[in-house]
From TrEMBL, chain A:
Biological source species: Tribolium castaneum (Red flour beetle)
Bias (Low complexity) ranges: 218-231
Main location: nucleus
Compartmental location: Nucleus
Protein keywords: Coiled coil, Metal-binding, Nucleus, Zinc, Zinc-finger
Origin organism lineage: Eukaryota, Metazoa, Ecdysozoa, Arthropoda, Hexapoda
PROSITE patterns: ZF_BED (PS50808), ZINC_FINGER_C2H2_1 (PS00028)
Gene name of the record: AUGUSTUS-3.0.2_31288
Protein name, entry field: BED-type domain-containing protein
GO cellular component, one term: nucleus
InterPro entries linked to this entry: Znf_BED (IPR003656), Znf_C2H2_type (IPR013087)
Occurrences of domain BED-type (ranges): 6-65
Region (Disordered): 96-128, 218-238
Domain of life: Eukaryota
Molecular functions (GO terms): DNA binding; zinc ion binding
From TrEMBL, chain B:
Protein family membership: Belongs to the WD repeat rae1 family.
Gene this chain is encoded by: AUGUSTUS-3.0.2_09967
Record-linked SUPFAM superfamilies: WD40 repeat-like
Matches recorded under PROSITE patterns: WD_REPEATS_1 (PS00678), WD_REPEATS_2 (PS50082)
Single Gene Ontology MF annotation: RNA binding
Identification of the protein by name: RAE1 RNA export 1 homolog
Repeat listed as a keyword: yes
GO cellular component terms, A-Z: cytoplasm; nuclear pore
A GO BP annotation: transcription-dependent tethering of RNA polymerase II gene DNA at nuclear periphery
Region feature Disordered, mapped onto this chain: 1-31
Keywords, comma-separated and alphabetical: Cell cycle, Cell division, Cytoplasm, Mitosis, Nucleus, Repeat, Transport, WD repeat
UniProt source species: Tribolium castaneum
Pfam families listed in its UniProt record: WD40
Entries under InterPro entries matching the protein: WD40/YVTN_repeat-like_dom_sf, WD40_PAC1, WD40_repeat_CS, WD40_repeat_dom_sf, WD40_rpt
Length: 401, 359
């Protein structure tokens, strides 16, 4: 198995032929690049593990190990770090490394292999070299439980599978993982968070374009530091907006965006309420709206009756200066209004488009006024943009068709 | 079919396609500042009117025609930024609440505005309640009270203390739900008179931002969807038959930025389709998504707008989906650009929100 090759070979990844300084990094590389679920980004521990995860959780079949070399896509081979690599491939890798020293070396290696562990031919394994580790049961025993924190693979490995590890090779396994990482791996910048390490592992540069560097989703809900604010509300709570691999786009203060916005001087100066003024000043602005609504009001004559009473009551309490029309509006009679708004013809059908014939509301802001003036009365705006029938139907409820 | 990039404008400059990536109908003469609330008229009106509240202190009303054309109808000013609007059940009035600590009733027939509610702090939510034996306006405020007003007397019919500031609320008689600061959720039952029904632990770990009630197959309210600032929505049944009926899902997050960070955005609004029972979410990321909560699948997600989507609404028969593109302050005041145009878009949505057929 892998441990006997340690003296002459760096750990390497069977799936992409990449060499690593340390098997820990290799394992992290494999989890990040080859054993990560493309749907939920969960990092599994072996190819079969990924396959089973996708089948059971997402009902999807994974037939190839992601980001693997064309001849190393086999998902059924159980490989974890250097464990489980088919013996033939180990020999081939060794042979290529050592160059000319080929036939005899591999032959002798083969002899060293205990018979019980010798690779057995496995015809069904597609384009894999046709061998499989002869110890699937033992391999599965090495697989750390799924709930293990992703940043600590070796810590969990240690007690679980020491019999499979070469003492020298894993001598650092008691160190915090990021410490081990720094010593063994000089290249990439040191991340602040151990959990970010897998993404910055050396394998990052070689993945295909389709494999996005989303490490994120596994830690998409970073631990929150804010507790429910006490009811006195004096404390200023904050939101942990920055997680290991994610950032919440929100101000750090844990109050609503509207409360923050309200503090702006622009919004803070609240104009004293002048309900009377606003009511009277724009009393004609909504005359055409009033027309439209009045149709509904008539339809809801009963509610209207109550409305009139309500209104009367309200007017008594809040002395509102009302100009002509509103009072007549309070009465449930349409005809009374008609003379004041010559263009008004009760009933919904004529109201659609009818606004164009009306004079612009005088008290509207200038831009409203000019824009509405600028439209020729005869211009049916929709006619050019929306050629007739088909355009109407999508926005239209059936009864209008 | 709807490939015109610019619908309205009345001869103004055409909308750049980047501002309208989904090529939807643009509402003409949008508000001058961010849009804080959207509401379509109830089914009692034969036409569709859309009301939008804005941080520019105004509430605007458009008629939305079947062609997708929007016709500005009227505008009403308030004493401060308006935070929420709602319609009365008969469609004759619009209620407006906001930073001036007041709620006002705007009678569309007479164009009168009268004050109907008063709080000690800005009012974040207002909802019209139509019960069999009463009707009233419910207002939720940052003064940690929930008040009920019959709109004819200056004193509330009822005032309920909240554990914290009201951040979001929804009403679907006989149920009301309020989400507060400090991640609390309170459910009220409204028949007879409003009373607290349940205080629930939040399923979410971050600040509540929006809530919407959904109905069961018999069209009675049965649960709610709660959105948080951490790109997540919880689907919660008030009385779940099975604890597994409650679940949360992630949304409005970036697909892994080049720097290795994933950006997580607030869920700004949730709306349920009135016919299909499916839902729409809109987020600070500037996208909207349609979801089927029963099949637990995403039905559609939009391209990103230039700015966040602050609110959304369905019209009464579920044909039109309106969404407001404007700045929501999620990146602080530094990213506020008052010269950027705000948009309200209208989308023909009926088919897109059909639930996933079980095959």
């Amino acid at each position: 198995m892998g441990r006997k090759k340690k003296k002459m070979s760096k750990p390497w990844c069977w799936y992409c032929n990449r060499e690593f300084e340390d098997e820990k990094i290799l394992i992290q590389h494999q989890k990040a690049k080859h054993f990560k679920c493309h749907i939920c980004h969960k990092k599994l521990y072996t190819g079969p593990g990924l396959s089973i995860h996708c089948m059971q959780v997402h009902k999807e079949t994974i037939d190839k190990v992601p980001n693997s070399l064309p001849n190393r896509t086999n998902i059924e081979i159980e490989i974890y770090g250097m464990e489980g690599i088919p013996a033939a491939d180990l020999r081939e890798h060794e042979r290529q490394r050592l160059g000319s020293v080929s036939g005899t070396v591999s032959g002798s290696d083969d002899e060293d292999e205990p018979a019980s562990k010798r690779a057995k031919p496995e015809g069904l394994l597609g384009n894999a070299p046709g061998v499989m580790p002869g110890m699937p049961g033992m391999m599965s025993g090495m697989i750390p439980p799924p709930g293990m924190p992703p940043g600590l693979p070796m810590m969990a490995m240690g007690p679980m599978g020491p019999q499979f590890m070469h003492p020298g090779e894993f001598s650092m396994h008691m160190m915090p993982p990021h410490m081990a990482m720094m010593q063994t791996q000089g290249g990439p910048a040191k991340p602040l968070f151990p959990s970010a390490i897998p993404t910055s592992s050396p394998g990052a540069s070689i993945v295909g374009a389709d494999f996005k560097p989303i490490s994120s989703a596994t830690i998409s809900a970073p631990p929150t530091t804010n507790t429910p604010s006490s009811s006195d509300g004096n404390k200023v709570n904050t939101i942990a907006t920055t997680g290991a691999t994610s950032k919440i786009i929100h101000p750090a203060e844990d109050i609503s965006l509207e409360e923050i916005r309200c503090r702006q001087p622009k919004y803070a100066r609240s104009i004293p309420a002048k309900s009377e003024e606003s009511a009277s000043s724009s009393s004609t602005a909504a005359s055409d709206l009033a027309n439209a609504v009045s149709a509904a009001q008539q339809a809801a004559a009963q509610a209207k009756q109550a409305e009139a009473i309500n209104q009367a009551a309200m007017m008594q309490r809040f002395p509102v200066r009302v100009s002509g029309p509103p009072i007549t509006m309070a009465l449930p009679g349409g005809p009374v209004m008609a003379p004041m708004r010559p263009t008004m013809i009760p009933g919904p059908p004529t109201l659609i488009g009818g606004h164009l014939m009306r004079p612009p509301p005088i008290s509207m802001p200038p831009e409203y006024y000019y824009r509405m003036i600028g439209v020729p009365p005869g211009m049916v705006y929709g006619a050019h943009m929306f050629p007739a029938g088909p355009m109407l139907t999508p926005m239209m409820q059936p009864r209008f068709r | 079919m709807f490939n015109q990039s610019s619908i309205g404008g009345f001869g103004g400059t055409p909308t750049p396609s980047s501002a309208n990536p989904m090529k939807d109908f643009e509402v003409t003469q949008p508000p001058d500042d961010s849009i804080s609330s959207l509401a379509f008229s109830p089914a009692t009106l034969p036409q569709n009117f859309l009301i939008a509240a804005s941080w520019d202190n105004n509430v605007r009303c458009w008629e939305i025609e079947q062609t997708g054309k929007s016709v500005p109808k009227s505008m009403q000013a308030c004493g401060g930024p308006v935070l929420d609007v709602c319609w009365s059940d008969d469609g004759t009035k619009v209620f407006m609440a906001g930073c001036d600590k007041q709620a006002k009733a705007w009678d569309l027939g007479s164009n009168q505005v009268i004050q109907v509610a008063q709080h000690d702090a800005p009012i974040k939510t207002c909802h019209w309640i139509k019960a069999s034996n009463y009707s009233c306006l419910m207002t939720g405020s940052w003064d940690k009270t929930l008040k009920f007003w019959d709109t004819r007397t200056p004193n509330p019919m009822m005032s309920i203390n909240l554990p914290e500031r009201c951040y979001c609320a929804d009403v679907d008689y006989p149920m009301a739900v309020v989400g507060t600061a400090g991640r609390q959720i309170i459910v009220y039952q409204l028949d007879g008179k409003p009373q607290q029904y349940k205080v629930l632990d939040s399923p979410l770990k971050y600040q509540h931002r929006c809530v919407a009630i959904f109905r069961d197959k018999k069209k009675s309210p049965t649960g709610y969807a709660l959105g948080s600032v951490e790109g997540r929505v919880a689907i919660q049944y008030v009385n779940p038959a099975n604890p597994k009926d409650n679940f949360t899902f992630k949304c409005h997050r970036s697909n892994g930025a080049p720097n290795g960070y994933q950006d997580i955005y607030a869920v700004n609004d949730i709306a349920f389709h009135p016919v299909h029972g499916t839902l729409a979410t809109v987020g600070s990321d500037g996208s909207f998504s349609f979801w089927d909560k029963d099949a637990r699948t995403k039905l559609k997600s939009s391209d990103l707008m230039e700015q966040p989507i602050t609110r959304c609404a369905f019209n009464s028969n579920g044909q039109i989906f309106a969404y407001a593109v404007s700045y929501d302050w999620s990146k602080g005041h530094e990213f506020y650009n008052s010269t950027k145009k705000n948009y309200i878009f209208l989308r023909s949505c009926y088919d897109e929100l059909k639930p996933r057929t079980s095959s």
